[in-house]
Write a structure and sequence with these properties.
The structure holds 2 protein chains of 2 kinds. By secondary structure, chain A is mainly alpha-helical. Helices cover 67% and strands 3% of the residues of chain A. Chain A is built from 8 helices and 4 strands, in the order αββαααββαααα. The chains are: A mainly alpha, B mainly alpha.
Amino acid sequence: MTRRLLVVSFLALAFPASAFARGEFDPSTEFEQHVWVSIHLGPLDLSITKAVVYLLLGALLTILLGLVLMRGTRLNRRLTLGEQIYEVAQTQVAEQGLPTRAIGRWFPYVATLMLFIWVVNMLGFIPLPLTGDTWHGIPVWGIYAATSSLSVTLALALMTFVFTHFEGIRENGPVRYFKSWIPEVPGVMLPLIVPLEILGQFMRLISLSVRLFANMLAGHMLILTFIGLMFVLENVFLAVVTIPAATAFYLFEVVIVVSIQAFIFAALSAIYIGSAIEPEH
Amino acid sequence: MLQTLLYAVTGDATKAGKAVALALGIGLGALGAGVGIGNIFGSMIQAVARQPELRGELQGIQWLGFALTEAVVFYGLIGGLLAYVLV
């Protein structure tokens, strides 16, 4: 047995994996969007791509999760899990950021955000036959997260951005709300501080979207790069190192990053909306 | 030293510069975030050791701080990737 293994390993080393080497390996090709169904409404491009399919799937699963976990009359394990998720959304997300009188209005939004982002992130780590590639007519299975596309996260962040200012103006009136952006500093400093405050409002948009996007992109890129190392160096025996490393990163992403990012996005949305409803001054 | 290294490259010096930019972006970003995350968890351990009953309340703040700090790596990464892809 040992001798046979040695022969096999020698053969594999002597003839590097030309069988599965596909030339230049580039992990970023996994994140390209190809149009699957072309939909054009005037100047609007609403074509269905990989990210759109993942988003629709995520939306469907979120709805199903809500129906399965939250509906029912008799308390059982399924409903207990739903209660736990609800409690995290209420005590950790909504009550941390939103003032008490606004919780009724904005709790549904931040809770949905948390659940939806969690589901879409989680879908990104389940292998699905949606890569768009085929191998001898069989769809190739792969992992891809819709949230690793900047357009998706930017759209989510834009929603929070719009709601923040909408709610700020609705609660305080436009004059009082925009006045709250001007901090109490000596008049000489105002030309310096006010543009920074306005810039800060837009930086929130960038940081909110880029945080989620880059986390998911980097997570997938790490896993892909580690597995791809075998193909770049054309050596099967690297699998001994790369597969456990890729698995470790995979577990780290699934256990920690997916939930943390969903939680953070919802919590920051709640904090931003809450700070617009009750400005400090 | 960087310039010497760049001149020493026989191939495409631009490509080498891009690779250096990418590595610096990730590396320096990770350096700062590592210090920050260590600080957060260190303080959390101290806080829980002193007042164990506050663990639940502190945990939310801890993860918030963790994610905010960790995002710094990715700003570096995005900057590096932009340098790598665009320039």
